[in-house]
Amino acid sequence: MKRTLRHPIRGDRLHPKPSARTARRSSWRTDGRQPRMRPRKSVNVASIVGSPEEEESRPNLRLRIVGVVVLLLFGVLVLRLWTLQVVEGKTYAAAVTRNQVRVVSIPAPRGEIVDRNATVLVSNTPQQEILLSRAEASQNPGIVGMVAALVGQTPTQVQASINNNQYSPYEPVPVAVGVSTDTVQFLQTHQAEYPGVSVETVAQRTYPQGGTTATHVLGYVGDITSSYLAAHPNDGYTQGSQIGVSGIEAQYEAYLRGADGRQALSVDAGGTVVGTLNTTAPQIGDTVVLNIDTGLQQQVEADLQAQILADRHTPDQVDGGRLPSAPNGAVIVMNPQNGQVLAMASYPTFDLNEWVGGISSANYAALAASGAENNNVIEGQYTPGSTFKLVTATAALQAGLIAPTTPYNDTGTFHIVGCPAPGVNNDTGCILHDDPGDSGGTYDVTGALTVSSDSFFYNLGQTFWTDRGQFGDTPIQNEATQYGEGTITGIDLPGEAQGRVDSYLLRAKLHAEAPKAFPYTASWFTGDNIEMAFGQGETVLTPIEQAVAYSTFANGGTRYAPQVASQIVDPVSGKVIKKITPQVTGHVAISPANYSAMLQGFEGVISNRSGTAYNDFQGFPSSWNLAGKTGTASNAPGLEPNSWFVAFGPNPNPTYLVLAVIDQGGYGAQAAAPLVRNIFDYIAANPISATTKTPTPSSPPSQTAPTANAPLGTPTTTTTTTKPATGTSGAAASTTTSTTTGGG
């Protein structure tokens, strides 16, 4: 008996070796006498695999199998190496490079903004900026307090700058801009004491003509918002970019922003910058040339402010000596022949320098409370009063309701058709009155415009409504749309508001949107049509809409979109990239006879002794042959009316139109007309060039505006009310009444 493998558990047991493998029985039963037994289902490894002594040794086969397996594994390894190094080699190489290189942007200096004479209004100035490395601040927290003391901030403020995620994590964070030269010199001589702190020269907006010149026109820049960044994903902006927020800065952002540079930085595994690989210099933005004339702009702003402040101390002699509050106002100067905006002023105003480097919360709250940030020329909405008579007169003449010579007897009172007869019941709400200064008389449309006869236009409004079967429901509103009133003008400034012209459809819409503010529904009566005919009711217009309307009439019927900018110029080559040409947005059909009758009426406002602005323009050169219109529009009870005046000339081919409005300023001849006169005094002494100057490298923009001549005469402010205008208008033909102020 030979000793074999020991049992894995009981090693002392011996297993005898059989002499030979027992032959398989043909049947599992030995004989018929033995009982039937079911074979075991379990598998005995020993019964399947023979012992080592029984099996023949085959080392060559095993070696072959191992060899094949090794070859397969080696082949897989070679294939994978080939894939990594050949097929995907460039991809992984780029990934490795990305892990070693960080690309950051270098902000481009914004382009300049210049006026029509190439006088610089907005430029850039170098400022010293102190930056702090995030990595250093993390490893050495004490540096935060040291930097805070250096720049005059609190550690909390410096830490907030470090935590600001608008800046790239691989470049230093700016913590102070515009630091003094002494601070920079101290830092340079004590650099070892301030690890991670550096100084850079950056470009910031500067205003050579002063931060209060053309404030609302120019606008300001600020940090990019997440929504703007998301809306311009392929324009090269980063979280630290500066963008135009308002005015020309925002409107022409695509041109002014320039092209940012790029800097490739080498970083280590911890993200710390260890060197600069290459740098692409930024390209300065394009120059935007405006139609604005700096001298005129500054004069308009000064005149507007002076008139409003004087108006607040000028008692209203017609309305019990009440002082107008005059909280705000606006002036627009245009060329009616092409839509060019020569000047634009809004009051109250602010200093653009407050926004440089970021405005403080306190200053921003003060601006918001005062309304100074609003551009009242394009955002203010004012009841137009008698300035709306332009539309009503055009509609009546063109529709054939009246002829240029059709007379009307103005008795000083007007009785609304359909109201109780005079002396029956309570008819006082049905009788409308002219301006207290009107003496009455017989007028055609020319005379009615000159004296601003309310009764004449009461009659037009009533007749249009009573004869609506012939003229339609909205002939006046349709004419207003042709003039561009109640529509967006398309001026190249952001934030333009849209006015509205009263109608029964408008009232239904307003009621649906705000039932409490507009409790009436779509009911419309004769008195409503009368109110609308002389610019009252729910009609409100922006000054730019009314300026466009009168410009359209002044040039004979072509409506132009107002244009603040003139051209875009490459500052390096001097090449004009974009020429902004006049844009026609509509036409007003008016016959020569009708036009002449209306023009004579507007000229009479200034030149006729009965004209509502005759006294305001005494002494102005008659050769200019100015035409104009006053407007006095009622507000809520207890408030002074809005004061309007618009004038254009020299006629018959006017190149200047000036429109002014002062909210709650009183009568048109009291506040707005003297303001417009002062502006024309300046224009007469300083004619505006018909062409704009293109800045080039050989003829660069100037930091100094041309010297202006003194305005004609002496600036005028009135202390007495000249020819005011009031009226009473029934809101319903039979029962509902309201009281309004007409437009003198």
Describe, in short, the structure shown.
It is built from 24 helices and 25 strands. It starts with 44 loop residues before the first helix and ends with a strand. The chain is an alpha+beta fold and 744 residues long.
Q: What portion of the residues fall into strands of 2 or more residues?
A: 15-25%
How many discrete domains? 2
Give the CA-based shape.
elongated
**Total number of strands:** 25
Helix count, DSSP H or I runs of 4 or more residues: 24
Name the poorly predicted regions: 26-30, 719-741
Largest sheet: 7 strands, mixed
CA-to-CA gap between the ends? Answer: 141 Å
CATH top level class name of the largest domain = Alpha Beta
**Which fold does the CATH topology of the largest domain refer to?**
Beta-lactamase
Radius of gyration, Cα only, in angstroms?
Answer: 43 Å
CATH arch. level architecture of the largest domain: 3-Layer(aba) Sandwich
The average pLDDT value, as a whole number, equals: 85
Structural class: alpha+beta
- CATH-defined superfamily of the largest domain: DD-peptidase/beta-lactamase superfamily
Question: Helical content, roughly?
Answer: 25-40%
